[in-house]
Design the sequence.
């Protein structure tokens, strides 16, 4: 079984527990083992970088150093963690003086980092390393008829990591299609959810969330699929407040892509963390079940 | 003879691994402002802020909310035809105002960031309930109750930890930080 090191990040411990559970369940089923780093620390989100860059790099370097001890690839399911780890890694590569300085500090925790680790986002592991063919081969309950808005958000693709398509990517849609769902045309799929502005500049964040929900509704999406805990919380947990603020009646479930893939592979919903959401995708799930039952009856 | 750097150079010096002063290569095309999802909430748009920095309007720049309203979505950064990492420049301005303790009154961002970083320096992990006091009273009574209701729902669904998490090798972790920020610290 292929093994990756896994940096869940603070959100996945609780607020995004369903992402954590479904990530472990689905990868397991696809022959990939995610081994959690022992004693990892917070990646700092955006706030370390508001205070001190060197501190920000050091705290992320500690996680990279622990990953290097045990393997060569570390996977982050949260977009902010991924961006921080990815670019800290790049800077440590490009700047040996920075690396020296940080290694000096890492010694306090008996660690050192030589820059040999590759950082990947969980979405990349699914769409690139595992691949849609492998996923299709494991699908037993295709999500036929489920219209999904595949929402990339920001930091998976921006800033640019390599030569990827940062304007019109398709890999998330392809992944959803592999599970049998129907990806809808969602023009704001790369537009920011507001991130931590929800806390620091709430009116701005509310307007950004409203735009996304409105766009998803126009696209007639049954559900929004995300790959980031912050996007999930902003889009789902604040939908009621958005309705209050804008006089709308949005009720669009927002789930993690791993939960949908898990369903299609026949993993029980509870094991995928369903039940922890504010807006149940039950209607969507039941609709799929009805289709399957019908088909089974016809087949018999 | 030493000369005082221009404000534009001061900001450019805070950009990691930048060569020369990328801000001065700005052609004022406005792609950043057109791409920015928060521009309409900013006192000055990203394009104007860069023009103001290059014109040396330091005091005027520092008293805007612009950089504290940047959500770090990097849309400007990937699209800038001059290759300026504009989101990074926004970070640089945030740090600059934090260090000088000189930012627009009423902003939540600086206090929130400081509290967040202190939480992590103390325990190694973030913990939402400790961050709530930095903003929960700022958006009026309705939002206060909305936030409390959301927190309760999250608690019921088992999505907020009761006990603040902390890492195991905390002593080593704190010594590591002391190595990076030796004097004054951020306690």
Sequence:
């Amino acid at each position: 079984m292929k093994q990756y090191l896994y940096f869940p990040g603070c959100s996945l411990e609780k607020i995004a527990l369903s992402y954590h559970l479904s990530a472990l369940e689905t990868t397991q089923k696809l022959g990939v083992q995610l081994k959690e780093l022992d004693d990892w620390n917070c990646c700092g989100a955006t706030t370390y970088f508001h205070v001190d860059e060197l501190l920000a790099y050091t705290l992320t370097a500690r996680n990279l150093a622990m990953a290097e001890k045990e393997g060569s690839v570390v996977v982050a399911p949260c977009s902010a963690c991924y961006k921080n780890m990815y670019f800290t890694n790049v800077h440590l590569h490009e700047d040996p003086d920075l690396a020296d300085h940080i290694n000096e500090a890492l010694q306090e925790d008996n660690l050192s980092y030589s820059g040999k680790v590759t950082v990947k986002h969980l979405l990349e592991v699914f769409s690139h390393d595992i691949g849609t063919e492998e996923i299709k081969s494991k699908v037993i309950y295709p999500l036929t008829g489920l219209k999904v808005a595949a929402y990339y958000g920001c930091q998976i693709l921006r800033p640019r990591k390599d030569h990827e398509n940062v304007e019109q990517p398709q890999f998330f849609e392809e992944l959803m299609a592999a599970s049998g769902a129907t990806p809808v045309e969602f023009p704001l799929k790369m537009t920011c959810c507001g991130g931590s502005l929800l806390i620091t500049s709430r009116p701005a964040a509310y307007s950004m969330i409203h735009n996304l929900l409105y766009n998803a509704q126009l696209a007639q999406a049954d559900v929004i699929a995300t790959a980031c805990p912050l996007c999930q919380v902003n889009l789902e947990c604040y939908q009621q407040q958005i309705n209050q603020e804008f006089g709308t009646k949005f009720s669009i479930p927002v789930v993690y892509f791993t939960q949908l893939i898990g369903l299609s592979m026949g993993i029980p919903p509870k094991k995928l963390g369903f039940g922890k959401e504010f807006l149940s995708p039950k209607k969507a799930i039941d609709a799929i079940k009805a289709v399957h039952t019908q088909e089974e009856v016809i087949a018999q | 003879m030493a000369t005082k750097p221009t404000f534009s150079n001061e900001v450019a010096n805070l950009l990691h691994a930048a060569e020369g002063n990328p801000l001065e290569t700005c052609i004022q095309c406005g792609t950043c402002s057109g791409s920015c999802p928060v521009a309409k909430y900013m006192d000055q748009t990203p394009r104007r802020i860069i023009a103001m920095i290059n014109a040396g309007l330091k005091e005027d720049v520092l008293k805007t909310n612009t950089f504290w309203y940047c959500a770090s979505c990097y849309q400007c950064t990937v699209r800038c035809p001059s290759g300026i990492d504009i989101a990074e420049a926004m970070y640089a301005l945030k740090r600059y105002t934090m260090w000088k303790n000189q930012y627009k009154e009423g902003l939540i961002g600086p206090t929130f960031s400081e509290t967040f970083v202190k939480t992590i320096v103390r325990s190694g992990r973030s913990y939402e309930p400790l961050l709530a006091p930095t903003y929960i009273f700022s958006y009026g009574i309705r939002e206060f109750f909305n936030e409390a209701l959301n927190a309760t729902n999250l608690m019921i669904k088992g999505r907020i930890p009761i006990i603040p998490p902390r890492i195991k090798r905390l002593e080593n972790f704190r010594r590591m930080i002391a190595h990076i920020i030796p004097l004054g610290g951020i306690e």
